[in-house]
Design goal:
The chain has 691 residues and is an alpha+beta fold. Helix 1 packs antiparallel against helix 12 and helix 2 packs antiparallel against helix 3. The two termini are 19 Å apart. It is found in: Secreted; Bacterial flagellum.
């Protein structure tokens, strides 16, 4: 065996083995001291990434379990308070039944009523003061509660706790629209024979320019079964003025009633704004004229049971100028069914136009009707104290126009959380060829002032026409949907105008029915755009079933409760079942009940039964959510357990294996050290050769 002194290869090998066994000893010591197999990314890069994701999931699941338990605590707090509210209502019902008994005099019932009123106050106190973690639970302000019950985003369970104060409890659950409609009549041009115009298939009767508007209304009331008529005249500003009057400036308003009598009002005195002017008009006209500011900042004037209103604005302060407008005839369907207007065998298109379909100045557009599908709608007078929304009284001056009602509701929207706006919906029944190219010219249709190009082609399906409308939705605010052979046009802007700017003889083949709108609908007519291949012949029919609407929207997401005054008929204000608005309700609340008479006690029993039903429903929903959360917690705990086991198999150290590795590394360390010492001594053997 050769001997070298410059390079000691056995020593180098022993050093390397010593370093290797030292690394194994360090790794085994680290794992045994930490209990983890992976202590740094170098130990297992993929395993570290997987274990970290599992750690995120496990910690998220564990927090979700705590969240669910917090949700159960909130629910149990609310449910406990509701149990006491139930006990209070049961006692109130007991007192109401006792008061309904005929043996008590007024003094006895007054004593019973005193306890009822105290219980109502306690009901409100519970609703106002019951809270969890600083949040009130039963006053209606809690809104949607979303519990994060998962380890990932948007894994939630949501629920709501409705208000259970006395203003809310006891109300019914019917949904409601405020409905109204109108048609414009040109009295000076009307000359009707007995069967010229039919409403719901019944003749309106003869009428000429010597008759008054009241005569026409009487004809409708007398001759048309199920339909009642009244009049309303509205004057809307086309631009916004300041409304500021100096001490010397005046505005003159002249109102002509249904029999032709005129009454003039001179509005004088200083005002500082358009709203001041509106308030002054309301005060100075003794309720005959109703003034309001609409959503566009314009002054709107309305007069019930009148045929004409004229405004003279010499100082241009109102934004209207010198303006005159005729009355709209309001037709109310007593049964809630649509109203159909048609001309009879002897009638002409002009008869329909003069009765309500009057030509405008642009593109042969005819102002159409707004007929209700409900009884007595939004044009009925809304008086002070008649209406409350979410417990807030709509204490505006007596209002008998849609504009006034919208303004009255929106004036208190901050308190109610409810806004009002108009809606429009037009349904067109289409069959056959819808539009066809005539004389090679390009067809187009005008909707809300925008020309929509139909490409000069023949259109035979509603889908193509709907697509053309929807391409212009951003400009017109109108969307179109196909419902079988019908085309549904919808808008939140309050009116839908259909017309044409084409000079060609565009034709609409088929019938136009079911047109729905806010206060007026515009349907093109005449040579440019007709409802048949030619101008309507004698005996033709225009059938319109129109619903005007005032839409209430909750800005908070909470249900809308509508409460009527004691002497207010819901049907008269249009607050009857119509389109579903989602939680709107009306009736008498617990706050309004008393048992001071037998009659009131009987009413109180029904109201309390409604209130108990509401609380029972709320408690049932909360109980269901509680049980659901119990199952959620069980499932989350199970998933967390299995995820922890999976992470343990990846991350945790196996002590049996690691102690064996430690023992091996320790032996190797000692052996390597001994061998290294011997290897380092080998070069010294050369010295014996040199002796």
């Amino acid at each position: 065996m050769p001997l070298f002194i410059n390079t000691n290869v056995p020593s180098l090998n022993a050093q390397r083995q010593l370093v290797s066994s030292g690394a194994e000893l360090d790794r085994a010591s680290e794992r045994l001291s930490s209990g983890k197999r992976i202590n740094k990314a170098a130990d297992d890069a993929a395993g570290l990434a997987i274990s970290n994701r599992l750690t995120s999931q496990i910690r998220g699941l564990n927090q979700a379990v705590r969240n669910a338990n917090d949700g159960i605590s909130l629910i149990q707090t609310a449910e406990g308070a509701l149990a006491e509210s139930t006990n209070i209502l049961q006692r109130m019902r007991e007192l109401a039944i006792q008061s309904a008994n005929g043996i008590f005099d007024d003094a006895g019932r007054a004593t019973l009523d005193a306890e009822v009123q105290q219980l109502i106050a306690e009901l409100d106190r519970i609703a106002e003061t019951t809270s969890f973690n600083g949040q009130a639970l039963l006053d209606g302000q809690l809104g949607q509660v979303d519990l994060q019950i998962g380890a990932q985003a948007n894994q939630t369970i949501g629920f709501e706790v409705q208000a259970v104060d006395s203003q809310t409890l006891g109300l019914g659950s019917q949904s409601a629209d405020v409905i109204g409609g109108e048609i414009a009549a040109n009295l000076t041009a009307i000359a009707l024979n007995e069967n010229d115009v039919l409403i719901n298939g019944q003749a309106v009767g003869a009428f000429d320019s010597t008759n008054t508007l009241q005569d026409l209304l009487d004809n409708i009331d007398t001759n048309i079964n199920g339909v009642t008529a009244s009049s309303l005249v509205e004057l809307n500003g086309s631009s916004v003025g300041t409304g500021v009057l100096s001490a010397t400036q005046t505005v003159t308003i002249a109102v002509t009633d249904n029999v032709g009598n005129a009454q003039t009002f001179i509005i004088a005195g200083e005002t500082e704004s358009l709203q001041d002017l509106a308030d002054k008009i309301n005060a100075d006209t003794n309720g005959i004229v109703r003034a309001a500011i609409d959503d566009n900042g314009q002054l709107s004037l309305a007069a019930q049971d009148a045929q004409q209103i004229a405004l003279t604005d010499a100082n241009s302060v109102t934004g209207i100028g010198d303006t005159t407008d005729r009355a709209r005839i309001i037709l109310n369907s007593d049964s809630g069914d649509p109203i159909t207007i048609e001309r009879g065998s002897t009638g002409t298109l002009a008869d329909l136009q003069n009765l309500g379909f009057r030509e405008s100045t642009s593109a042969g557009v005819i102002t159409g009707v707004g007929l209700v599908q409900n009884s007595n709608g939004a044009n009925e007078s809304l008086q002070v104290g008649e209406l409350s929304i979410n417990g807030v009284a709509i204490d505006n001056d007596d209002t008998d126009s849609l504009v006034g009602k919208i303004a009255a509701i929106n004036n208190v929207s901050e308190q109610t959380g409810v806004t009002a706006n108009a809606f429009a919906q037009v349904t067109v029944d289409l069959t056959g060829v819808l539009f066809s190219e005539i004389d090679g010219t390009r067809d187009n249709i005008n909707i809300n002032g925008l020309n929509i190009d139909l490409g000069g082609a023949t259109i035979t399906d509603s889908a193509t026409l709907a697509a053309a409308f929807n391409d212009a939705t951003d400009q017109t605010g109108v969307t179109a949907r196909v419902l079988g052979t019908r085309l549904l046009l919808e808008s939140d802007q309050g009116a839908i105008n259909l017309g044409t700017a084409s000079t060609a003889a565009n034709t609409l083949v088929g019938t136009t029915t079911g047109i729905q709108d806010f206060t007026r609908v515009f349907i093109a007519s005449g040579g440019a755009f007709t409802t048949s291949t030619t101008t309507l012949a004698s005996g033709g029919t225009i059938s319109l079933a129109v619903q005007a609407g005032l839409k209430l929207t909750s800005t908070t997401g909470n249900p809308i409760s509508i409460e009527l005054g004691d002497n207010t008929d819901a049907a008269r204000l249009g607050l009857v079942e119509a389109n579903t608005l989602g939680g709107a309700s009306f009736g008498t609340s617990v706050a309004s009940i008393s048992v001071d008479s037998q009659a009131n006690a009987q009413k109180a029993i029904d109201v309390i039964d409604n209130a108990l039903g509401t609380i029972n429903s709320i408690r049932s929903d909360l109980g269901a959510i509680n049980n659901r959360l119990d199952f959620t917690i069980s499932n989350l705990s199970n998933v967390s357990e299995n995820s922890s086991a999976a992470r343990s198999r990846i991350l945790d150290a196996d002590f049996a294996a690691e102690t064996a590795a430690l023992s091996r590394a320790q032996v190797l360390q000692q052996a390597s050290s001994a061998i290294l010492a011997q290897a380092n001594a080998r070069p010294q053997q050369v010295l014996s050769l040199l002796q």
